[in-house]
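Methods, example record. To illustrate the input and output format used throughout this study, we show the complete record for MBL fold metallo-hydrolase. The sequence lines were provided to the predictor; the line carrying C-alpha cells was produced by it.
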Amino acid sequence: MTITLIGGPTALIEAGGFRFLTDPTFDPPGDYTLPHVTLRKTQGPALSADAIGPIDAVLLSHDQHADNLDRAGRAFLPKAAHVLTTVTGAGRLGGDAEGLAPWTTRRLARPDGGTVTITATPARHGPAGIEPLAGEVIGFVLGFGDGSTRPIYLTGDTVWFEGVAEVARRFRPGVVVPFAGAAQTRGPFHLTMDTNDTLETAAAFADAIIVPVHTAGWAHFTQDAGDLAKAFAVLGFGPRLRLLEPGVPTVIEPPPSP
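The corresponding predicted structure is encoded as:
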C-alpha cells in the first residue's frame, strides 16, 4: 500500500486497488472562530485538492471540527464516489454522505471484482464525559476481499480507551494510522492521542506498522512526530514507526498475516 500525507489528518491511502482520502483539509493557513475557541491552521496542504485525482471513498471521522473538515475539504466531498462518516455527520452534510454507527459495515466493489469492507469503529474525542461537547466521531477498519493486503485501521480523532482496545480484540490490522498530536483546546486534557496513547495502541496491535497523522499543521496540536519518534525509540517500538514526509508517496509493507 502507499500512503501520502497531505497535512494534518488528511492522507491519501492507496491499497487493494482502491483510493481513500481521510478527513479532507485543503485550506491555506488561517483562523476558524468557534463559539468557545479559535482554531489556527499554520500550514497549508502538501497537495492541492485538484492534484488528488479520483477517490473511491472519503473516510471522514467527523465533520464538526475545521481541523478535520475545512472549507476546501467540504467542497471536495462531491468529487468522491462515496463519503462515509458518522450518522449525525451524514445528516448535517446531506447529499450522498453515508452515516455508519460503530461496528456497522459498508462494502465497496471495483469493476474488476476487488472488494473492500469498511467497518466503522468507536472513537472518543477526549476524556470520559467529553462526548456532549466533542460530538460523535468514528474510526475505520478497511478489510480487503482477496486477503492479499492485511486490514488497515484508522483511529479517527480519539484517545486510547476501551473502544480502541476492542478494535484490537476483533481485528489484526497490518497497519494502524493513529490520529495523534495531543490536540488541546479549552481544557487541561488531550482530545487526540498523545505519545502515551499512541504507545498503548502500538502495544495492543502488537505487530502492526504504526503510521501517525494529525501531528502538524494546527496550533492546538501540542506534540509532533519527533515526540513520537523519541518515545517509540525509548520503549523499543521504533522499528515499527513510519513517519511520513508531507506530499511524498510512501510505500508501507505490512507484516505477513499471522
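Annotations derived from this record:
The chain has one domain: 2-241.
DSSP finds six helices and 15 strands in the chain.
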